[in-house]
From TrEMBL:
Main location: nucleus
GO BP term, pick one: positive regulation of circadian rhythm
Record keywords, A-Z: Biological rhythms, Nucleus
Pfam families documented for this protein: Elf4
Name of this chain's protein: Protein EARLY FLOWERING 4 domain-containing protein
Family designation: Belongs to the EARLY FLOWERING 4 family.
Cellular compartments annotated: Nucleus
Source species of the chain: Brassica campestris
A GO cellular-component term linked to this record: nucleus
């Protein structure tokens, strides 16, 4: 994993920390994909609204439902990320505080 974010943080924890970071990265990519889709939905909803055509306004009902479902998915993904991060930090603080998450944990609790 040379050149990666987790290289050089301790051999024992690099693999586990790398998997955690990859999981976080995947979740952030998933969130960004949904947000990009929402941007397209909002643009289409706005165009339909401005057209004042009955069929376009009716189509907005389904588009708004899809937008709401996407917002719920994003909120759920962020909730899962928060839970996973808390678990990772807690697990790291139970160990010897080496590895990426241990460093995050040390910085979090070190003042001044």
């Amino acid at each position: 994993m040379e050149g990666s974010v987790v290289s050089g943080f301790g051999d024992r924890h690099t693999n586990a920390d790398g998997k955690v970071l990859q999981s976080f990265q995947k979740s952030f990519v998933d969130v960004q994909d949904i947000l990009d889709q929402n941007r397209l939905l909002i643009n289409e909803i706005n165009q339909n609204h401005e057209s004042n055509q009955p069929e376009n306004l009716s189509r907005n009902v389904g588009l708004i439902k899809e937008l709401n479902n996407n917002i719920r998915r994003v909120a759920s993904l962020y909730g899962d990320l928060s839970h996973s991060f808390s678990r990772s930090v807690d697990a790291s603080s139970d160990g010897d505080s080496s590895g990426t998450l241990g460093i995050i944990n040390q910085k979090r609790f070190r003042s001044g």
